[in-house]
Amino acid sequence: MNKPNDKKFWSGRFSKDSAELLDRFNSSLSFDKRLYKEDITCSIAYAKTLAHCKIISRHESDEIIRGLNKIFEEIEIEKEKWFCENKNEDIHSAIENRLINIIGDIGKKLHTGRSRNDQVSCDIRYWLKEEIKQIISLLKTLRSTFITLGREYFKTIIPGYTHLQHAQPVTLGHYFMAYEQKISRDIQRFAEALERADVLTLGSGALSGTSYPIDRNFLAKMLGFKKISENSIDAVSDRDFIAECLFNIVLLNVHLSQWAEEMILWNTEEFKFIFISDAYATGSSMMPQKKNPDIPELIRGKTGRFIGNLTAILTLLKGLPQAYNKDLQEDKELIFNSTDNIKIILEITNEFLQNITFNTDRMLEAANSSFISATDIADYLTKKDVPFRIAHEVAGKIVAYCIERQRTFKDLSMSEWNTFHKLFGDDIIEKIKIESCIESKNVYGGTNPQQVLHAIDRANKKHE
Ligand code: ARG
Predict the structure, then answer these.
(1) How far is ligand 1, taken at its centre, from the CA of residue 326, in Å?
(2) Higher-scoring residue by pLDDT: 13, 389
(3) Top-level CATH class of 366-457?
(4) CATH hierarchy code of domain 117-214+224-360
(5) CATH number of 11-112
(6) Do residues 53 and 212 lie in contact, with contact meaning Cβ atoms separated by under 8 Å?
(7) What sign results for the dihedral spanned by CA atoms 301, 306, 312, 314?
(8) Cβ–Cβ under 8 Å, residues 256 and 145
(9) What digits encode the pLDDT tens for the residues 31-67?
(10) What pLDDT is attached to residue 6?
(11) Radius of gyration of the chain (CA)
(12) How far is the CA of 265 from the centre of ligand 1 (A)?
């Protein structure tokens, strides 16, 4: 294989070779090399368009395509070697230089009417569309896992928390379906981001458009873009679609980080709500007894870099004058880093969830161990026409009374109940059982097991 040369396509007006340090600082090849497939695909479509619009001959276009296909094969066969010691400024120059190396002067026609400014935007959009589709597909798998778990545990009782204090009992199924909702919104957000990435920007030139009669709709159709961009200045400077995607990844991982935090807590000696399969936990090199939840910890930890990447792109964009500026080259490492990390997170979250054992006895015991049904005492009186504020006060006094005497609601005699309010009847004990508390939340979106099943039905109908 011949080494690609590294001629600078802008060297004409320069009287000196560029400094070695400038080359090192300026180059993006070390990271944008992963766009070689997209760059070649978009260039092939561009060459076809140039011939279709009679800007170059059919023969020239065929030669360019032959050369580009050869480069693709070369890279596929020996990726490491192809890029090793390649001194080109970026993936676009590396491929164009190699093309000229292989097919000679005809290769110099490929860039007719094109700038690296619209080229890089087109490549990255083409690449990102595929990434978003993969993320959506992984999200859909995760969503079905939450639904499956929701169905399996639709009537399993756990303590529900607010402020991490026992609040009201809920079902484990209802908890899983809460995550199904968050993930569904994430899917919607990525689908919307996909719409906005799905725009062909090639044909915008450096910033003002092109003076060649390029049929941009023909090009868009060939590359599978839904729309073509409306304004060439915007087209080469717009990175909203990257910022949006970085935001969607942050919010998605904020959701997963919340879940991860729960798994870490639930796995503690104090909670003991879950057991993690040995295949999905790690040990300590010093303390033999340790079994650590590294997976959820790393998921929680990676939120930092996702937020960092979003902050970086917004900071990068904020002061940029129109149109292209080299600052924009910094977009790639951010989006590569975030998409790579979120994809593995989605995969591992799904597997991790399927390898947890839920300690349902312990969950029930925990739910029964507190004053978690206090709201239902207030509701009991309220349903007998006591104003809620008064009923709340009465229930609060009963809680204080029990705490002081180290007793539970169940230990109270009927006469004790009636010292707090005369409207308490024998049925109060039944009404404040946690099963009854759960049963009574029979409202659309509530934790009553039948409502959870309805929610599962609705979820199954959606998105399919
Ligand atoms: N490597 C560059 C980037 O990623 C490609 C575009 C260069 N354009 C230019 N006018 N220097 O943004």
Answers:
(1) 6
(2) 389
(3) mainly alpha
(4) 1.20.200.10
(5) 1.10.275.10
(6) yes
(7) negative
(8) no
(9) 999 999 999 999 999 999 999 999 999 999 999 999 9
(10) 80
(11) 31
(12) 47
Is 342 in contact with 37 (CB distance < 8 Å)? no
Residue-wise pLDDT for 276-321, tens only, equals: 999 999 998 988 898 899 999 999 999 999 999 999 999 999 999 9
55 lines ligand 1 (CB under 6 A): no
Structure tokens that stand for 237 in this block: 């400077």
- Measured in Å, residue 188 CA sits from the centre of ligand 1 at 32
Distance 389 CA to ligand 1 centre (A): 65
Atom of ligand 1 nearest to the CA of 28: 1
What does the pLDDT read at residue 7? 82
Return the pLDDT at 3.
Answer: 52
Give the nearest ligand 1 atom to 206 CA: 10
What amino acid occupies position 259? Answer: W
Atom number of ligand 1 nearest to Cα 91: 1
Angle formed at CA 444 by CA 441 and CA 448, multiple of 5 degrees: 35
Average pLDDT in the 407-433 region? 95
Confidence of residue 9 (pLDDT cuts 50, 70, 90): confident
Q: Is 429 exposed, middle or buried (0-12, 13-18, 19+ CB in 10 A)?
A: middle
**Mutation choice for ligand 1 from 14, 39, 120, CB with most ligand atoms inside 8 A:** 120
